[in-house]
Every structure is written in C-alpha cells, then in structure tokens.
Design brief:
371 residues; alpha+beta; Gyrase A, domain 2; six-stranded antiparallel beta barrel; four-stranded mixed sheet; 20% helix; flat; Flag_FlgI; cilium
C-alpha cells in the first residue's frame, strides 16, 4: 500500500469514529482574520413597538396590559379620542421588543436589519407590520427608526385535538427595516495610534503580529502591550485608513495552546496539533448485558375450570468483551495518539472516555474542553 493510500484509509477511519484533526498550527493567515481594530465595532440598539395586522394571533389584552396601554397611547397621538373607558378586544396587535446592530461608520440615511421578538402572549407574528419604532443606544439617544412588514420563518397550526409548531413564529426579522438617523462621531485621522485586539490573546501571536507590522512600516511602529493588544503608532506619510488597510492584509502564522475539544452530544472530537501525551497503557472494554422480554399465553385444558393468563419470560445474556492493552510511548504526537486509539478499535464515545481518563492520570498535556 502506498503512503497516499494509507493516509486516505486512516482519514476515512478517523472520520468514521468522529475524530477530527486540527489543521497545522503554522497556517499563515491575514491579520484582519485574527484581530480587529479597537473601537471599530457594532453598537447595540433596542426599542419597544407594536406589530399590527395579525390574523387573530396577537396579544390577549386581558393578559397583556402593556399592549393595551400602548394601543391607547398610539391612537391618542394619531388623533383618536380618549379610549381609557372603552373596552378594547382586538387580537390583531402584539407588543414587541426590537433589536438591531448599528455597524461602525454607519451614515445617516443608511438602513440596517431588525429583529422583532414578541413580548406578550401572541402565538404568531406572521403577516404583521411593525409600526414606527425609535431605537436607542446605551446612552439613551435615538440612533435609528424602524418600520415595515416583518418576515417570520417559523409557523404554527392548531386543531381541536392537536397542534404543531415549527421554528419560532414569535420571532421575526425586518430586512433593511430601520433608517439611521444619528451618526456616531469617530474621526480616524485624529488618532495618533491604533490598537489591534487579537480574537484569541496569545503572547507568541502578538509578537509575530508586531514583527510583521514593523517589517512593513518600519522598526518601532508596533508595540505589544499585552497578549491581546498590539499598538501601532501613526507614521507621517500614512493617513490612518491607509495604514489600517496596509496592516490588515499582512500575513502571520498564529500560535495556539494545546487543546482537545469534545462535543459529547454528537461524539465529535477535535485534537490540536500541539497535544502531547506521556507514556501510558490503555485498555478499553467491559460487559454487555442483553435482556429480552417475551410473553407466553397459558390456557386451561378443555372441559376444565380455569382462566387464560399471560406468563412473562425473560432471557438475560451477558457478553464480556475481550480487552487488550496498547502502550503509547512517551512524548506521543497527534498521529501516534490516533494510531494507538485505532489499534484497540474504539469508537467516538469510548475515545472520549479514554481522553478524560488520560487527563485525569496527568498524562495529557493539553486543555480538555467539553462542550
């Protein structure tokens, strides 16, 4: 068998048991893919509004007094008289919370998407229309105003004896549903320096980012402040946007800690390339108990006094799996670990238990993260 064929077979076997190998840690990526510029970020907006036009699936006003008050206030502002003494019985309106993200450098007049979530006991928002809703930031200022027909991905259906719900019909989206009314003042060219925030803080990665920037823009331009921050001083011939464009396309090889990630729900295991294991002996096996229930009918003989009874019958069988040890030598690499686990023929669930046991024994030199 050729080397290529052997690797193909090994990859197929690892995929079959749910074992996924992480790519090389020395992969070269752009700085823009592992870091972001400090201050260039989204801002959260929130608002309270009403969705109208529902087909009887809105809030029950007896259970949602805030919806009633909102309807009364809206109609009064639109010129309808005082309705506080009238009994509203509409079920075509729902109170909702509206959320959105204001992207960096959003200009007045641009549009953003909205997420609309029911606040009361409405059963569905399908077919509704969001009426004018101011959206405020954390400082209390209004930055956008939303309105428009909403789009619901889930649905619900109900009969006299059964009902079905698919997705979440009480959460909807309004694409381009809000118009930006206020801009966040941020002048890049007024900065004397910019800071890069690494998505995964690491001293080695930060040092490599610093070196790549200094090689491109000149010695002393970049300085590591901490594992997650690199400060870049502004150079005379560069304006800040041009300098940022030059920086974010530089390529570096990020480093990472040794880590094993286990998803116990799906049986998926991801092992990083830096994982090392001391010399250990592994044995995996156990007992399998099979219980089979069956029933027999016992009837009385002809011309006799008796009754028919059901007699249960249980067959219990115990199977003991033959176990064997495999020895992993000291300073085991990722490939050696996979070969050793495959040698004793374990599946994904057994592999998870083995990795946890190796970690408990102090022989696994990596972070073990279970999600």
């Amino acid at each position: 068998m050729t080397v290529a064929a052997y690797r193909a077979c090994l990859a197929a076997l690892m995929l079959a048991i749910g074992l996924v190998l992480a790519g090389p840690a020395a992969a070269v990526v752009r700085i823009k893919d592992i870091a972001s510029f400090e201050g260039v970020r989204d801002n959260q907006l929130v608002g309270y509004g009403l969705v109208v036009g529902l087909n009887g699936t809105g809030d029950k006003l007896a259970n949602s007094p805030f919806t009633r008050k909102s309807i009364e206030g809206m109609l009064e502002r639109l010129g309808v008289g005082n309705l506080s003494d009238d009994k509203l019985k509409t079920q075509n309106t729902a109170a909702v919370m509206v959320t959105a993200k204001l992207p960096p450098f959003a200009r007045r007049g641009s549009t953003i998407d909205l997420t609309v979530s029911s606040l009361g006991d409405a059963s569905s928002l399908r077919g509704g229309t969001l009426i004018v809703t101011p959206l405020s930031g954390a400082d209390g200022e209004i930055y956008a105003v939303g309105q428009g027909p909403i789009s619901v991905s889930g649905y619900s259906a109900q009969g006299n004896a059964a009902s079905i719900v698919e997705g979440v019909p009480t959460v909807a989206r309004v694409v381009n549903g809000a118009t930006v009314e206020r801009e966040i003042a941020f002048d890049l060219n007024s900065l004397n320096s910019v800071r890069l925030a690494l998505h995964t803080p690491d001293f080695t990665t930060a040092e490599r980012v610093q070196k790549a920037i200094n090689d491109e823009l000149g010695h002393g331009t970049a300085k590591v402040l901490d594992p997650g921050t690199v400060e870049v001083a502004r150079r005379g011939k560069y304006d800040v946007p041009t300098m940022m464009a030059a920086i974010e396309n530089l390529e570096v090889a990020p480093d990472s800690v040794a880590k094993v990630v286990i998803d116990a729900k799906t049986g998926t295991i991801v092992i990083g390339a830096h994982v090392r294991i001391d010399k250990v002996a592994i044995s995996q096996g156990g007992l399998t108990v099979k219980v089979r229930e069956s029933y027999q009918v016992s009837q009385p003989r002809p011309i006799s006094i008796g009754k028919t009874v059901v007699v249960p019958k249980s067959d219990v069988k115990v199977e003991e799996k033959n176990t064997k040890f495999t020895v992993l030598q000291g300073d085991v690499s990722l490939q050696d670990l996979v070969d050793g686990l495959n040698a004793i023929g374990v599946g994904a669930r057994q592999t998870i238990a083995i990795l946890q046991a190796i970690k408990a024994a102090g022989a696994l030199h990596a972070d073990l993260q279970i999600i």
